[in-house]
Design goal:
205 residues; alpha/beta; seven-stranded mixed β-sheet; 9 strands; 40% helix; globular
């Protein structure tokens, strides 16, 4: 099996397939993603989320903000299972979604845990990390604000954020409040979309 041109092991493929089956089952009862995107689960959500790990395939500690239906947090945790290292702390305040995430991690033997708390309270509970991810949560300025507790003054912590076609406007807005290094990774899944890699965060105002 390949995702975005990357060969995926049989074990990881089986984990991803089991996650997809669980997702489809739970999505009938709770709103995990926009219903219009359910029919394109593998391309729109799983393959798209897998890009985070493909960009940063290291056994580090992740914090996934607003994990929702598990994208990209559970997908990263599944890939980490193959490395037998690293961990994903999934932060999701919605208790029904958090219950799904716990089930998905447990049944796929993925390397992660769920924190059913507000993002603003997560740093105290989770502690330091090496990478932060978020998808379809808020604009870049808001994401950096959420991530600041982990990233400010810490050279080794990076943020990886999925963004759509208007991402340059979000960058301009964020640069009004923050100073940071930025790498733009073109999406292999969605045309005109990117994954923004943020590092060396400093506060301007």
């Amino acid at each position: 099996m390949e995702l975005n041109g990357l060969r995926v092991s049989r074990e990881t493929q089986e984990r991803l397939q089991h996650f997809a089956a669980l997702f489809q089952k739970w999505a009938k009862a709770i709103n995990l993603v926009a219903p219009s995107t359910l029919d394109d689960l593998w391309h729109r959500h799983i393959a798209d989320s897998s890009q985070i790990f493909q960009i940063h395939p290291q056994p580090v500690t992740w914090v996934d903000l607003g994990s929702g239906g598990g994208f990209p947090g559970v997908i990263t945790a599944i890939f980490l299972a193959e490395l037998q290292g690293g961990w994903v702390h999934l932060v999701e305040s919605n208790h029904k979604k958090a219950a799904f995430l716990r089930t998905a991690l447990r049944e796929t033997n993925a390397r992660g845990s769920v924190h059913s708390i507000r993002i603003e309270d997560a740093y105290t509970e989770v502690g330091e990390c090496g990478a932060i991810s978020a998808r379809a949560l808020t604009d870049l300025d808001g994401l950096i604000g959420y991530s600041a507790a982990w990233m400010l003054g810490k050279e080794n912590c990076r943020g990886f954020f999925h963004k759509g076609r208007d991402y340059r406007k979000e960058i301009d807005k964020a640069r009004g409040r923050w100073e940071f290094d930025l790498l733009e990774h073109r999406s292999a899944v969605e045309q005109e979309s990117v994954i923004l890699e943020v590092s060396n965060l400093r506060r301007l105002v």
